[in-house]
Amino acid sequence: MRWSRTFLPTMKDTPAEAQIASHRYMLRAGMVRQNAAGIYTWLPLGLRVLTKIADIVRDEQARAGANEVLMPTIQSADLWQESGRFDAYGPEMLRFEDRHGRTMLYGPTNEEMITDIFRREVQSYKNLPLNLYHIQWKFRDEVRPRFGVMRGREFLMKDGYSFDVDEASAALAYKKVFISYLRTFRRLGLSAIPMQADTGPIGGDLSHEFLIQAETGESEVFFDSAISSDPAFTEDLTGDAELEAAFDRLTSAYARTDETHDAALFDQQVPTDRRVVSRGVEVGHIFYFGTKYSDALGATVQNAEGKDVAVHMGSYGIGVSRLVGGIIEACHDENGIIWPTEIAPFGVGILNLKVDDADCTAACDRLYAQAQAAGLDPLLDDRDMRPGGKFADMELIGLPWVITIGPRGLNDGMAELKNRKTGEKHDVAIHAVLAKITG
Ligand code: ATP
Ligand code: MG
Predict the structure, then answer these.
(1) Distance from the CA of 319 to the center of ligand 1, in angstroms?
(2) β 130-139/67-68 pair status
(3) Which of 105, 161, 272, 335 has its CA 20 to 30 A from that of 427?
(4) Does position 355 have pLDDT exceeding 80, yes or no?
(5) In this structure, which residue's CA is closest to atom 2 in ligand 1?
(6) 3-state secondary structure (DSSP) of residue 426
(7) Domain edges within the chain
(8) pTM for the whole thing?
(9) CATH for 3-337, options being 3.30.930.10, 3.30.70.3270, 3.40.50.720, 3.40.50.300
(10) Which of 75-89, 160-174, 222-236 has the lowest mean pLDDT?
């Protein structure tokens, strides 16, 4: 992409409404614009990152054997009356009427709808286990939408639902998602700690939240620092036995949020030098809730003995749009964002220092074409602006690599290559510069 042809409205000044770094940088880098409290338009730069995160989530869901579907955002109230949650959910759920006076709602979650789909289509244990998910916008009329996309009212969530014939296989399904979430977050450049959670309004027996550490996180977190060095965070697990062992290890170590924290147990279970008390952002949340919805909605399957039994279910959420903010909270400095390579909006920035110099522009255009051919997805800053502003914008939008070409270096066939994360700069021959990035 050429910057001059891209809708990338950066801002120099800090917007007054933004209290935390991620919100400030998302506005300044032209990633989002607010339309109403907690409701945002995603501009090209933000949308690129959001899409990359969703694609990684998708990839890992496929690896874990889940099937992607796409349920609507608008739901009829009927199923929610059946489950009893229409009244139980509270004012966070946006309810309204269509022209025929039928009560509708903008889905805050999809347990009822997926259970309805399941009960119509699946009758036998032979079709299980089954895990269905979608990545879809949700609406929750939060009391205090804040921190930009971190606590929005409209937000993008991956929500998945598992169906099993009995509790034992449902527990295995839960553990598989638990481990696959660690891998998903790792690919996003994050170490998300699983913490024992309250089961809350969705109800049920077993629940974990995944939190990333950030000073501005809304929850207080308490955990054993030994967890972060567990091999499950860095290595792929093979086979159910290895997976179950990792699950047992991670869930028996102490890790809780303020909602479930037990100070006496924390002191007793964790040696002083391993106690971490910090703040965190919830980026994922998983539940096992047994037959809560299948009982309410009559979703049964025939088991191996030919008996009809209520299906056992779990639900599994990842805050896809919240992750954009969460990753920036974890990856930034005083000059701007520092994107992890896998989700960077562009792979490399090419900065033309002097656009009215024909040689310089020709060299940049050539490099740009080569970077495109190499699959590096370059952003060429071809704007007729002072170098200072261009450097500042590049730092702000945080691409992993920036190649700068100016008339002086060009005389010797040289460009400058800068690594955004380490800040290291090197003069490199132009013909060799892309190879430095692709390795
Ligand atoms: P929270 O405790 O932060 O309000 P929740 O427990 O209500 O979240 P879940 O129902 O577990 O949320 O939703 C799954 C995921 O969706 C959460 O882990 C979070 O990452 C994301 N999420 C929830 N609410 C919001 C929101 N208002 N804005 C952005 N993302 C959200
Ligand atoms: Mg939650």
Answers:
(1) 6
(2) parallel
(3) 335
(4) yes
(5) 282
(6) strand
(7) 3-337, 346-438
(8) 0.96
(9) 3.30.930.10
(10) 222-236
